[in-house]
Amino acid sequence: MTALNRVPSLMVRAGTASALTIAAVGGSIVVPGVASDASAAPLATKALEIAASKKGSPYKWGATGPRRFDCSGLTLYSFKKAGKKLPRTAAQQYNKTHHISAKSRKAGDLVFFHSGSNVYHVGIYAGKGKIWHAPKTGDVVKLQKIWTSSVWYGRVS
């Protein structure tokens, strides 16, 4: 039996909730000896998957993970785990990204919220007008629709 033939039985052993969670974040089940989609995924896709895996983690100002995050702490953690170092704050991260238009945005790009020239929040674009982010004190990491047009986009390279 090949490793690929064992995937369905591995899914059963992983449990329905685990398989559904993996599918919901666009992940894959790792089978020893078989290249996974995640290992071939670009940096931004890996960072997006890592951010999504932190769903429900509590917000804490100044936190950079692995259990609690503020907004830029989540993006820093996600890209670091994917293999790219980012600066600490949302404004510093904006200054280190390649600025792109809303038309050019792709899943895994950073979304920067601003008031005038002041960047005050960051999340990771998930597609379909939504971001993964750590919103505020008392909240948790979650997927949410972008609620304003006062955003800029940046690509990590």
Write up this protein.
The chain contains six helices and six strands; from the N terminus they run ααααααββββββ. It has helices at residues 7-14, 16-24, 37-40, 43-53, 71-82, 90-96; strands at residues 98-100, 110-115, 118-127, 130-133, 142-145, 151-155. Helix 1 (7-14) crosses helix 2 and helix 4 crosses helix 5. It starts with 6 loop residues before the first helix and ends with a strand. The relative contact order is 0.16.
Short description:
By secondary structure, this protein is α+β, with helices and mostly antiparallel strands.
Q: What string gives the helices and strands in order?
A: HHHHHHEEEEEE
- Rg calculated over all Cα atoms: 17 Å
- Could you tell me the mean pLDDT? 82
Number of DSSP helical runs: 6
What is the spatial order of strands in the main beta sheet? 1-6-2-3-4-5
Q: Please report the distance between the alpha carbons of the first and last residues.
A: 40 Å
Largest sheet: 6 strands, antiparallel
- Unreliable sequence segments: 1-40
